[in-house]
Amino acid sequence: MNVTSSVAPYAARKWNLSGLRGISDATLELHFGLYEGYVKNTNLLNDRLREIRAAGKASGTDPSYAELVRRLGFEYNGMRLHEYYFDNLTAQPAEIGNGRLYNALGECFGGFDEWKKDFVAVGGMRGVGWVIAYRDLTNGRITNHWIDDHQNGNLAGFAPIVVMDLWEHAYIKDYKPAEKGRYIEAFFANLDWQACESRL
Length: 200
Ligand SMILES: [Fe+2]
Description:
Layout: H1 25-54, H2 63-87, H3 100-106, H4 112-123, E1 129-136, E2 142-148, E3 158-165, H5 180-189, H6 193-197
Helix pairs in contact: 1-2, 3-4
The structure holds fe (ii) ion.
Fe (ii) ion binds near residues 31, 34, 167, 169 and 170.
């Protein structure tokens, strides 16, 4: 049996997000291309790792094998986090309203506005990464977190609720590096609260 053909590759998804406020179609086009690169590289890495296992050559003491394993977390999360991000954007955003998500986000912060203030504050961190409002599935609490690259800082057993890309490619065509705050405002202007609520 050919072990490399026994697992279906990941398929790149498509989104129609044209017409976002403050995030241009040119930015989206660039961003979708980068996302597709993560899907492609996740599949390539998985294929290569399967080949090495099938050849009986998997060894954590082999630096080239170890690096492939390490890269998988970066490429896979690069793929998956972008899917969460594009899924929680919409050109027809609705107000969040005073409902289940509104209350859940505010629970650990003393209110929704305080949660949002904290989310924006985390977004002001230097470097590239992600801000994610994560829900701890063991107790339902939602807290805000910074993810370095794509793989460092994700919490075990936590589910992403609100996912914001803060790599420069997410806004550099539309804003200067010092204008990151305007991109964060644009993110909230296009945030699909219903998509976020469906993740609760
Ligand atoms: Fe991105």
